[in-house]
Every structure is written in C-alpha cells, then in structure tokens.
Amino acid sequence: MARIIVVTSGKGGVGKTTTSAAIAMGLAKRGYKTAVIDFDVGLRNLDLIMGCERRVVYDLVNVINNEATLNQALIKDKRCEQLFILPASQTRDKDALTTEGVGKILEELSKDFDYIVCDSPAGIERGATMAMYFADDAFVVTNPEVSSVRDSDRMLGILSSKSRRAEKGEEPINEYLLLTRYSPERVRLGEMLSVDDVQDILSLKLLGVIPESKAVLNASNSGTPVILDEESDAGQAYIDIVARYLGEDKPHRFIEEKKGLFSKIFGSK
Amino acid sequence: MSLLDYFRSSKPNSASLAKERLQILVAHERTSRNQPSYLPALQREIMEVIRKYVNVDQDAITVHFDQEGNQETLELNIVLPEDR
C-alpha cells in the first residue's frame, strides 16, 4: 500500500510544484518507488519543473477516460529509476477529474508504489479537492505572508472536512507545515512573520523551512528538481524535509541568519 | 539583543502587525467554518419574514451558532425598533 501525500496551499505561487518535484525526487532517491501526479488540469507545469515536458504523450485525464493505460501515461524519470511522473492534461476542463476516476488510478498505483505525491493546483476547486481527497499526509506549503497564511488555514479546514478520511470518520490526515521563501534577515528586521508566528497561527507540525534561494529559479530554469542541487541551501532544506518525513530526527536549519563577521563582532543573539 | 537591534526597535514592526491581524481573522474564520452551511440562507429568510411585519435593519438581527460537545445551539437575536 502506498502512502498518499498531497502538496497543497490554497494560494498560488508559494512553491507547491517546486516542493512536489523536490520531495518526490527525494523519496525516490532514498529508494522508495514514487509517483508524482500533476492535478493542475489545464495549466500543467510539473512536467516542466521535472524536465520531462517533451516526453509527455498521455496524461491523467487520458487514463481516467480509458484512452491510455497507466503504464503508457507514466513517464519514467531519467535521473532516478524509482521515480515516475503522471502529467496533467493541458487542454481539457477540470470536470474531467472524477472521484471514481482518480480513486481508481490511486488504487492501481498503490499496488506497486511506496509513495504517491499529488501536486495540487492553487484554489479550492475540483483539481485541488481531488488532489487532497484520498491523501494520508498533507504538506501545507506556506509563505510567511498574510494572504498565504490565511489561505493555508482555509485549506486545513477543507482537509479536515472534505477528505475521504474525514467523510469515512477515519484517522484524520497528518498535516505538516512547509514554510517557503523564508528570509531570516527580514524576520530579524521585523519585516516578515517568523516561523514561530506562523506556527502560533496555524498550529501545525513544522516539517521544514525553505529559505528564499536563487537555487529554486536556477533549478526550474533547467528542469531539475532543486533537491538535486545538493550544494544549495534550498536543496539541503528539502533533503532534510524528506528525512524528517521519513522519521529521522534532523535539527531545523535555515531559520537563523548566516552570521557574518559584522554580527559576530556586534554580537546579535 | 545587540546594540543594532536597540536602535531598530523604535521602528514600526510590520511583522507583528501581520501576526495580530491574522490571529483575529483566522479565529473568526474558524468559528464560521464549523457552522452549518445553511446558516446564511436561514438568516436571510428569517430577515425577509420579519420585514413583512416590522421594519428592521440588516444588523438588527444576529444569528449565532454554538457547538459544545453534542449540543448545538442556534441563538437568534432581533432588536425591534421602538416606534412601531
């Protein structure tokens, strides 16, 4: 049985697809057979972030409509043989996603995958609710910014009432916070909500903090999940997140500023 | 606290303002999240019925939903105008 992870946020542009690509690659690199599914029907982008945009033949909706088999639609990653990508359709409308259709695909994938990562679109419409419906774990991607925090809280409400687990009265979905585009310097200056502030408001278990990083744009430019850039701060942050998710005890990094000579002399806390 | 932070502390702090606003907003949205979805429609219809007989304002009626354990209370408060 595979574990189903939804990467969600409500708000757009906070780093859902970057996160989906990174953690799927991270889990696969740790040896787990992983599938990552793009639920953004009409606006697919996971293929581009994963660097397989020219290999897309069939998509999620083709499989739901029995126009292709799952094996035909899954794209095998060229960097890691444990990783497979299921792209979203670029043309059809989102009503093509049905609970039965999505359920069937996830059930079939569950048979021989260890993890299924569902990359949710922004908003609270069909694609987003379908991406989260079958989830066991939810990664709530949030920026330290008012509209993102508010939308994340709204998503938490939907996770706890509209998921399969909620409807069947099973154990609730495990919800984790991923704080992205974090700038310790701006937090120190009082210009940005801190990790503690966001946790106070959302009361979620913190899985990790991804610092604002040039590596993220560099990675998407080249179609490489940022987790493969092991030298970069963002890459390392995602490696830590995967490890924490797998139950390893890793102290949080990238919350404090890198200390320069100046602050060492003047002694900030 | 460093010497630098001391001088900075006199500046208005937008992060704490953000936190304060969010805490109020989120608390408010969480209470309305637990309400039954028919509540706004119920409020609207009650309003229409009352208006047939008495001329009251929109804000003269408050509908409050409370949940404690297994018990749910629907509280309806109507302020009638003095000169009818």
Q: What name is given to the CATH topology of chain B?
A: Cell Cycle, Chain A
Number of helices of chain A: 13
Which two chains form the greatest contact, residue counts included?
Answer: A-B, 25 and 21 residues
- Distance between the terminal alpha carbons of chain B, to the nearest Å? 64 Å
Unreliable runs of chain B: none
Helix-strand sequence of chain B: HHHEE
User: How can the largest sheet of chain A be summarized?
Assistant: 8 strands, mixed
N-to-C SSE series of chain A?
EHEHHHEEHEHEHHEHHEHHH
Mean pLDDT of chain B: 79
Please describe the structure with a list of short key phrases separated by commas or semicolons.
heterodimer, A: 269 residues, alpha/beta, eight-stranded mixed sheet, 13 helices, globular, B: 84 residues, alpha+beta, Cell Cycle, Chain A, two-stranded antiparallel sheet, 2 strands, elongated
Overview of this protein structure:
The complex is a heterodimer of chains A (269) and B (84). With 269 residues, chain A is an alpha/beta fold. Helix content of chain A is 42%, strand content 16%. Chain A contains 13 helices and eight strands. Chain A has an eight-stranded mixed β-sheet, with helices on both faces. The longest helix of chain A is centred in the middle third of the chain and has 17 residues, at 146-162. The N and C termini of chain A lie far apart (47 Å). Chain B starts with a helix and ends in a 6-residue tail after the last strand. With 84 residues, chain B is of the alpha+beta class. In chain B, strands 1-2 form a two-stranded antiparallel ribbon. The model of chain B has no long low-confidence stretch (mean pLDDT 79). Chain B has a single domain, classed as 2-Layer Sandwich (Cell Cycle, Chain A). Helix content of chain B is 49%, strand content 19%. The chains are: A alpha/beta (269), B alpha+beta (84).
